[in-house]
Write the structure tokens for this entry.
Amino acid sequence: MSLEIVCIPVLSDNYVWLLHDDVSGETVAVDPAVAAPVLEEAKQRGWTISAIWNTHWHPDHTGGNAEIKAATGCTIIGPLAEAERIPTLDQKVAEGDRVHIGKHAAQVLDVPAHTAGHIAYYLPSASAAFVGDTLFAMGCGRLFEGTAEQMFANMQKLAALPPETRVYCAHEYTQSNGRYALVAEPQNEAIAARMVHVEAARARGEATVPTSIAEELATNPFMRAASAAELADRRAAKDNFR
Ligand code: ZN
Ligand code: FE
């Protein structure tokens, strides 16, 4: 059961993920910031978007909803707790719910903190997790509507996924995150080694995501924080890091 996953870079640093299941012919767009490049990518591949999965209400994750729905008639799925802030939602989901693309089931995980109702989608059959702005390569989302305690719990929840799980983040923040990670954990050789690859990939203009749970366990100072207090300290330091 293979699922094709395509990266569409949009705006300055957003990634929209396009999922396609050949068996059912279904196609899902995760967090479409904008519509045109997403519709174009699908069209070029001969795919029709059947659903949108939103992780949270921010406009750089939902901005393409209405136009993609108008063009395709797709179903828009997103966080129950943010339904008022995403008026385009057709289906509202929360922890414990499942959504499908063909025979692939995605488990909905509540991961509040970046926004109050942020969710993630975990597909065990594809070893893939779509985490929006909660977990980034060597980073985590800013705490706009939640606490360090919540983000610490989110990190623990995601850390418990199988290590080979591919993590599809919604932004290319790896270089900046990595530069901070080197300061947060100067003795961590895995971070230094990873940064060599990251700098080279960025110099070639390549995406550095998806990442994996295993890579984050080794190099992410937020996932590796020993306590909510340590995560809070690191988040505050990163907010002011340049
Ligand atoms: Zn966001
Ligand atoms: Fe975002």
About this structure: The domain at 4-239 is CATH 3.60.15.10 (Metallo-beta-lactamase; Chain A). The radius of gyration is 17 Å. The chain has a mean pLDDT of 98. The helical segments are 36-44, 59-62, 65-72, 148-159, 174-184, 189-203, 213-219, 228-239.
